[in-house]
């Protein structure tokens, strides 16, 4: 092993690079090739590089890095990586439904998952957690877990609605999730660019994207004020005319909104939209902030959220793509339990086996 020093204001920590059977693997947090991303740490470039090792950091970078630095640091300044134990996470509501939270936390305590994604809907996992985020955070952290992300509420899924009142209502619903998300300890808030429906007529396609952009322009600075990153999710292929299914469109939507605005990539959504999943990850690059890992049958309009391996996605290619872009955030599995809540425990066992297998394969 060898290390490179990096500087974070007046603090110096170390980033470690490891040599594996696949060659030297970059394990830095996600950063753009020309600048410092919000919530990330940038390594000094290799000897001979003309790029300066130290840069002036933006206000957003300062807020996020200082508030959320704990998610990247393990101990003694070592930067956390997906090669380390505990870098997998779970979206709890789809898996467990309304199963008793205490029982869920006990099951998660002995699982390979250390990070959770919560949902900002009333009555979801930990009933009305948004009203008491600090207390819920303590219960989660007492179980050896932490919240990595919060999914915006369903009432906020109409950010691209052409009805101006509906769009503004969606913006308001989303922004109300920011304060509890920050207080529960989340780094990222995930939002949808538009609501699910059977068809988007061609004449509504571009106007929908423009409406989403207006909504994101409102939400981006508010998220930054709370020290949060905002991740726009690629949409499922409900129809082949739905805006926001391709990563390139999401990148256009977030362009210029700040380094703290990026992408939540849902593998199942991409597969149902007939995209090449791994290549979409490569296209997202440093703007990939978080994941929803799940499988699908590959059929259009089938947002199955299967256990990885139960569908048609090439997971070897997906994992390789994540390594290629040096993705180093928690890898969140979002798999739906479509039977009774009790089945969530058995589903957790299957998902744990997947996480362990993927970790050992690295």
Structural commentary:
The structure is a single chain. By secondary structure, this protein is α/β, with parallel strands linked by helices. It folds into 2 domains: 2-46 and 54-60, no CATH class; 88-361, TIM Barrel. 35% of the residues lie in helices and 17% in strands. It is built from 12 helices and 11 strands. The protein has helices at 59-68, 92-96, 101-109, 133-142, 164-175, 178-183, 202-225, 247-254, 267-272, 277-284, 315-324, 343-361; strands at 2-8, 11-20, 23-25, 88-91, 113-119, 146-151, 188-192, 229-233, 261-266, 288-292, 331-333. Strand 2 (11-20) and strand 3 (23-25) form a beta hairpin. Helix 5 runs parallel beside helix 7. The radius of gyration is 19 Å and the shape is globular. The model is unreliable at 1-25 and 27-86 (pLDDT under 50).
Question: How is this fold's topology laid out?
Answer:
Elements: E1 2-8, E2 11-20, E3 23-25, H1 59-68, E4 88-91, H2 92-96, H3 101-109, E5 113-119, H4 133-142, E6 146-151, H5 164-175, H6 178-183, E7 188-192, H7 202-225, E8 229-233, H8 247-254, E9 261-266, H9 267-272, H10 277-284, E10 288-292, H11 315-324, E11 331-333, H12 343-361
Helix pairs in contact: 5-7, 10-11
